Automatic annotation (TrEMBL):
The keyword Lipid biosynthesis applies. This is Diacylglycerol kinase. Keywords: ATP-binding, Cell membrane, Kinase, Lipid biosynthesis, Lipid metabolism, Membrane, Nucleotide-binding, Phospholipid biosynthesis, Phospholipid metabolism, Transferase, Transmembrane, Transmembrane helix. Belongs to the bacterial diacylglycerol kinase family. The keyword Transferase applies. Its main location: membrane. It is found in: Cell membrane. GO terms for molecular function: kinase activity. The chain crosses the membrane at residues 36-53, 99-120. It comes from the Bacteria.
Amino acid sequence: MPNRNKESFGVNRLKSVGYAFKGLVVLVKTENSIKLQLIIGSIVTIAGIYFNISTTEWLIQLVMIAMVMSVEGVNTAIEYMADFIHPDHHPKIGLIKDIGAGAVLIASIAAIIAAGIIYIPKVFA
């Protein structure tokens, strides 16, 4: 069977990264929640520098920031897809969107708890 894809594996990977970057730019430009999360991520990054948090704390903080923003990106994709499939209001589409938002809430609560564990002892020390 002939190879129908004439581009190399490396070229295809570069294109995939380009598409992913394009999606990231769209997400940041169009979604207020991501903008807010970028601001919060920047604030806790500055706090991490100020309080000289440990390597482990940096890793936890980075994972939490990435988790919240990633789940928000997936939630946004779900919302766009749901709106594309059924642009009019529909109870099942609303439920799907609510579940996606609930996933973002879970990630956000976990991030807030992690930030509290890291920073409360440092602020009140």
